[in-house]
Amino acid sequence: MPRLYKLWLALIYIIGLSALGVLLWVLGSILVNGLPVVLKYGIGLFTNNIPPPMFLFFGKPEVGLAPAIVGTLMVIGIAFAISLPIGFTAGILIAEFKHSKIAELAEELASTLVEVPTITAGISIYWLLVIPMHNPSALAGGIALSLIMIPYIAIYTAETYRKVPMVVKEGGLALGLKYSTVLFKVIRGLVLPGVISGVLMALAKGAGEAAPLLFTAGWNDKVTLNPLDQVSTLSVLIYKFGFSSQELWRELSWAASFILVFVIILPLIAISKIMVKKHEF
Amino acid sequence: MSSKYAIEIESLNIKIGNKHVIKDISLKVPKNTVFAIMGPSGSGKSTLLRSINKLWDLYPEVKVSGKIYIDGIDVNEIEAHELRRMVGMVFQRPNPFPHMSIYDNVAIGPRLHKLYKKKEELDKIVEWALKKAYLWDEVKDDLKRKASKLSGGQQQRLCIARAIALKPKVLLMDEPTSALDVVSTKRLEESIVELKKDFTIVIVTHNPQQAARISDYVAFIYNGELIEVGPTKDVFTRPKHELTEKYVLGKV
Q1: How many helices (H) does chain A have, and how many strands (E)?
Q2: What is the interface pTM, i.e. ipTM, of the complex?
Q3: Selection from B191, B192, B108, B183 nearest residue B151 by Cα
Q4: Are residues A167 and B53, on separate chains, in Cβ contact within 8 Å?
Q5: What pLDDT, in 10s, does the model give residues B189-210?
Q6: Interface list for B 140-159 with A (CB within 8 A)
Q7: Which domains occur in chain B, in start order?
Q8: Which end of chain A is more exposed for a tag (fewer CB within 10 A), N or C?
């Protein structure tokens, strides 16, 4: 029996380490393939337009990812502006008004939405918005992404507010303060790090999603700041260029992966984790 | 409309779910006294206390009926937050706002109720409240320290300071020493006796000795029923009810 136990333990270790290995391999390959491209094209990557499809006929094209970087920020910004108020309100509702039917419904909805395949958010916004507007756009992409981000923010917010002991909230109420004052002023300092951490995690999740944007955000070789224009994003660019037979496209796909993971997503997750640490009292 | 009683309770009944926890209790608490509610664990004392400042409003499963007047004002005629502005509370376990400084814990009530015009006035209120709670000397050099860094006894006195900073008419205390050691308990009891000059205090305790030490009036509650009430001296020296005598002697 002890020998069997040891064998079992060894197996657990091997499986655990290989899971970690896969993660490191993914990150490592992005680093190894992406960083050289970023160094090769340098700052131009962040300022130049994406070379047009016929770049081979135009001599030496400018090589850059600026439209995809700006597009990502626009789409994420729009999604953030929509999902923060809705997600936060839903989270408060779920945590603090648990006796109401709407709160129950909101919780069900949030936990279901988290599980829904993200591509369905894309297709539904395509039917709802892109077809009536006759054009994909940063706005449509942002709305599709907000469907992914709202449940994240709601769940994180609810968790954070639930963590505050009832007796602390009662301490505020006993001072003759309204419930809303207790929630938004008295315990603000206690919940803010947790809520911000949730928002950052939602942003990281949103930034990495390609599926909801495929039908909704469109494509653009050039930088635009008009939310009704089509935009390219890093995630969609990775998808589009990743399989290409052209060396330059594949290079750009790796560079975009590097920027997305090491410049946008990992820092967001890191800040979020630090926030959560600070939240413990 | 002012009354000579700080609190009047008339035929109060409280049900939690199907359980009848407080059974038809009526009480009158004279002003500027310490009024102890004593009884064994589970007798309903805390339940009774929490109905005085309508804390049960948050719990739909708790049904409160009967009349409660604070200084002659029917509590059902005013909003819960207005009532709680007049009735401070100190809880069984110290519950300071852990993320705030000592100063902010005391200042937050006056700040959010806008009770002052200048910062100096707020400083004065904070100092006054901390002194009244017998905490000032221990914390005056470092008011910016986080409340969570204080000892349990200090946290509880901070909670008293937080409550009295609003100068309520009544201060409710729900077994405030149950989580404290002997020295802290003694300190807290001293501050309670000091506080009755300014406030009416209702204190719940499961410890008859504590009731005898600090209270002017005492009510004995058993199984949700009021067994006996009167001046502390009378209840402890000449109890009218056999059950009270047993309880006071530690036999219940």
Answers
A1: 14, 0
A2: 0.93
A3: B183
A4: no
A5: 998 998 999 999 999 999 999 9
A6: 148, 159
A7: 5-248 (3.40.50.300)
A8: N
